Amino acid sequence: MIKRIRFHLNGEKKEIEADVSLSLLDVLRDVLGMTGTKHGCGKGECGACTVIVNGKAVNSCLFPIMKAEGAEVLTVEGLQKGGELHPIQQAFIDKGAVQCGYCTPGMLLSAKALLDENPSPTRLEVKAAIGGNICRCTGYVKIEEAILSAAELIKEGR
Known about the structure:
The radius of gyration is 15 Å and the shape is globular. Helix 2 packs across helix 5 (141-155). A hairpin with a 2-residue loop joins strand 3 and strand 4 (56-59). By secondary structure, the chain is an alpha+beta fold. 33% of the residues lie in helices and 17% in strands.
């Protein structure tokens, strides 16, 4: 069944018609062209598809598109503003927290959701926040350092 869905995506109003059986991931990638959101396991176990919905990090592969009605959705494409990288993106670059990059969009959004809720997290809180995001390339240390560094950049107003 096809339904009309209205929501905000990266600050812009969207109105689409989509099959109610689709996930938010399907619509983001295949209908709206937001390919920064990655398709990983399709089971909510890897975090590659993480986006922020109404301030919370969610696995978009498990999020029914109909639940997006009226929601605020943020993808990795919406992080930078006016050509300027978000402090979290800059910190990932500065700290060498990106290797193959497949997990990076999900990691960035999990980090943003954490820092929006808790601007001064401990390393343990950072580990918990990215616990649902799998990275096969790193040992997570540089990712954790990047998130802690981003918290400082944000506090400094950068």
